[in-house]
Design brief:
The structure is a homohexamer. Chain A is of the alpha/beta class and about 250 residues long. Chain A has two domains: about 130 residues, Rossmann fold (3-Layer(aba) Sandwich), CATH 3.40.50; about 110 residues, 3-Layer(aba) Sandwich (Rossmann fold), CATH 3.40.50.12500. Chain A is built from nine helices and ten strands. In chain A, the strands form two sheets. In chain A, strands 2-1-4-5 form a four-stranded parallel sheet, sandwiched between helices. In chain A, strands 7-6-8-9 form a four-stranded parallel sheet, with helices on both faces. In chain A, strand 6, helix 5 and strand 7 form a beta-alpha-beta unit. In chain A, helix 1 crosses helix 9 and helix 4 packs across helix 9. The radius of gyration of chain A is 17 Å and the shape is globular. Chains C and E meet through helix 5 of C and loops of E.
Chain lengths: ~250, ~250, ~250, ~250, ~250, ~250
């Protein structure tokens, strides 16, 4: 099984981190490849970053669909799940966002959880996703450690310290059974945080890989019946002209 | 007051239709300019189309922000409100999506409404927006006339006939007080449909213009405090490199 | 365009304040007239006050409908939106409550807001309205400055001081982008509070006027199809006998 | 125990029907008195009728509170529960609306129910109440037999025939375990409908009486702590001047 | 009228407490009998305890249905309402859980309430019930006094002290009008707590008895039409073989 | 990895069917063992059956926890997820219900799905689970093919015919992208139905196995922090005396 993990930002170091984290949980028969868009923001910390990155995500899926190395399932490795429904439209394979993956896993091992994300301003993205996915009542609180995303790469010690502090506050105050880490860049911190915090820490990249394996193992792909069917072919203009009369299936 | 109406697709005919519809309801002191992205799909009928068009929308807002003709408010004239929150982040001006505009107006003159959109597959986009905006309980049903968007331009008689049929079914079956038209391409049909159907027909472009005037008239712009503040400047790569170290404010 | 702003309480000073605030945001072609019921409470701070004032509101609308100065839209200028649906039934014109107006505006410029109202006991009215209108998830918290309504008229300095304090607490603690002022009597404080607080302050009277202009500008009136149609004429008794066999349309 | 049943409309025949229905289910130690406002509509079939009748309801409660025949609990016998919260504010006794009473009872003996009311246009009132009380998910459908309220008095045979037809449709189509009758004027029809329909028929007046007995039996009255405390005394003007400086407790 | 109060745990002292509390509020014509399962946990403080006790509850109902002392209504006297829907299936009589009973009563005398239960870990059970019954929005907070259930029997002074402390915190912090006691073992504390706290204290056993009287007084029993009909007879094995080919009606 | 699939009913044939279906999707390193309680109903078609079977489920988990063949994850193979939270309390391993498993999978490959279950009367169980898990908005409709559960074993041809008919109706009428099969006894029908219906058919046993593999692969087990911690040891009486002073961890 070939799972393609797409880092929606363009920071190769983070792609590597994510790819390694994905590989570390993959089943024996699973091959992980990690990619990133050629174009886009180096980190995703706003609706603006997210809108731009969504294009990169979809283009990565399209490239894989047309490539010579067939992909069995995709994981979108940014906690805002950018481009998720668009990506689903252009493939028969399952596509998993890491936020939804982590939320699903969290509800299976606890009755209530909190999210600890990077910046306060991206908390709203997590809140919107919780509402869309149906998990608002299962999440007690969306918290931010106030770490810029790239600090996870560049300033890891301080970042981890702040993360641990915020997770401990969540444990103490939120009446929860688990914590969801709210950033793809935290993919390599699960073990460290689990040890430090003392309750289950759920991370999205690893969760996404296992859900992707699960769906692909069931031969369940994105439904091509109804509103996730392939897009109607049509002209595109300008820098998106290459999507004209899209042929995918 | 200068309101910029952005047609998120790249069909100039539709931009013209939308611009005229916007101008026809504008207050005396309001100047309408209608634009469209240089790049993107000719119509928006899928999550894929929407993801691509969101970039065009945001780039149009950025261009206007940096242009010499200051804009007091923006209207995003596609019923999926593509790029809405991203667009809000990059300006102090208010930004209104036509779906939200129509929903707001509908709740002010009726207790329950239905939506009549183009294609069945885009109904899910309207459903998601209704949930996000809080209007799920006010909308009885999202219906589709099964008209491809561009048929509104290219095959208007048949399109209008189907629209009228679906609106009449909504009136008869849905226990409603108003109908929301679910496509920016229907912007010139409000009067015709109102006459034909016999209950208030709410159209998003015109609704968006009036809400934009309302907000701008109150000197209320997008909050720059909290999660809609300007995005953190950062590097972008590839075809989006021009967004690097964004300076807007 | 003629917008009638109805102050649901019987304090003329407040009617004047509200009328001036309304006029100060009205478009060039808009004429504002402000009235108040002949009968009712001097301020509205309970469900009891609200139930009584609802009659006054509806009677004011009926009087205007039968008067010689045609009204294009009504604004009900008390934050509990008393008599809103009843008022809508007796006119083809749009009728806007200032609470709903402020909530609508707040969702267009921020993702989350808080309400700051007068007395703690009236907070429940705002909570109920938020639920009815669909905005519960957009409002973080309903706060009270614990100011009796008439103190806004009679003891303005202290009232404003408390308001500012509570707004600053909301800004600091609530993770919001905007604040909604929860009382018609605060209509003249918007500018002062905006300056003092540093995020958008949304006030209902001004919001209501602009929404009324918006709807009237679209020729959208209250739906007379379905459950907001004119009431069935019938006998009334006692002090309400004058409503017998109501003829409005 | 003295339960005062208030018919919010001014049709004495309906007051008698309601009073008899109430008495027929009262416990041995319970005395029922049935009253109606001196002023108001002869039936309640619109938001307008409801707003007017709310004043009558509250005045009836106030009159009783000041009267010489102490009341232990109140029932508001119109399916819109007009004036419910206002009435609660002016008494320490429990106050029960017949819509809420019927909904509560329905959820205790079935998992899902439907409502059959009089006119389609009043269905929205039931929908709003279901939302406010938290019972939206327990109610499958609000149906109307399209009977004007007074036809229940004046044209009972046809009215009952239509009611039975609509209840049978609900039984067949709605996947329910019980039916709630949506009008105080149906108070004497419970047995007849139960026999005809073959599933539990829940009627609000009788339900309200038993809930009133239940609360009074527990010595539980309306909370005077918090937002249902007595209204702040204040001046009222005009025809409501008698409420000035209200003294109740 | 014969009301059978079932204490779902097997601690006779608690059955006695509950039975006395029930009898103390029963109407003159009501006879209370209190029982407990022969088998099960001595207290219910977890999902595990609850699952086991549900069997005991249903077996108690079945025993009563087959017994010689006909029962008119049942009350399940544990705040998790264990076995409620199963119990309803096996009888035509109404069956009331004390959690639902208390929630219903609380919404009738206040707009918002809090729950004070025994252990923090059982709070989730109350939260789930609030969601299922539709009362989530009416409850501000589920609190725990951190008292093991049997301490209410064995160490009553300390238990009451902690309860009072937690109730006072709820009164001070939660913006509520009433408090619901979250454990059947608190059935004898209502008066004491009402005096100490100064707002209405709602207790489930007494509430359940009065609701049971109310339903039985209306001749309303569990609907045998639809999903609460008697279970289909079928073989059972092992220790549950006695339920084979169940005949109840 | 050892996954224990527990058939909550006592029909060995169904246990075999479920075990085979589970094994057919298991990953290479996964060993499936399928068991059933010694005591309980032969099929689960009511709340009563479900309450009894929950005990069997928990006892099976306890037996496994104390057994010599360590279990890495449990699947509860009845669509009502009986005993789910209780089972979670008594183990550190993940425990997955097949209803939740199927719902989770359905939301990952479609935006809207319908459920097709056996009997109409058990539809309410699915509805309650959808609400509890947060998936109400993702499910368009819960349908029943009106097949008794054991007919899936004893009368498979007719049962499959009815299932196909109902699934085709769901496909035609419900505006969905996937169908969830609502009974563990349908575990061997997925391929046949997928071929016949033409959209993704999601079955719970297979979904549960893959989610169990996913969680165990992530070393994520049921949270022992908070409300799913091991139950407090305590005395049990009668036929449940063996649970006294439970020691599991």
């Amino acid at each position: 099984m070939h799972i393609r993990v797409i880092n929606p930002n363009t920071t190769r170091g983070m792609t590597d981190t994510i790819g390694k984290a994905a590989a570390s949980v993959a089943a024996p028969g699973t091959r992980i490849t990690a990619t990133q868009p050629a174009s886009g923001p180096v980190s995703i910390e706003s609706h603006f970053d997210e809108a731009i990155s969504a294009v990169g995500v979809v283009e990565e899926v399209l490239a894989a669909e047309r490539g010579e190395d067939p992909v069995d399932a995709y994981v979108i490795a940014c906690f805002g799940d950018p481009g998720l429904l668009a990506a689903r439209e252009v493939t028969r394979a399952p596509v998993i966002g890491i936020a939804e993956a982590a939320f699903h896993m969290a509800t299976l091992i606890s009755t209530r959880f909190s999210v600890v994300t990077t910046l306060g301003r991206t908390g709203i993205i997590a809140e919107h996703l919780l509402e869309n996915y149906g998990f608002s009542h299962h999440c007690r609180r969306v918290r931010a450690a106030e770490i810029p995303v790239l600090d996870l790469e560049e300033n890891p010690d301080l970042a981890v310290e702040r993360l641990i502090d915020e997770c401990l506050r969540a444990k103490k105050e939120d009446n929860i059974g688990a914590i969801v880490l709210g950033c793809g860049g935290m993919a390599d911190l699960t073990d460290q945080l689990t040890d430090a915090i003392g309750l289950p820490i759920i991370e999205g990249v690893s969760s996404g890989v296992k859900l992707a394996e699960a769906l692909a193992g069931l031969k369940l792909g994105t439904s091509k019946y109804g509103d996730l069917a392939y897009p109607r072919p049509k002209p595109f203009t300008g820098q998106f002209e290459h999507h004209s009369n899209i042929k995918i299936q």
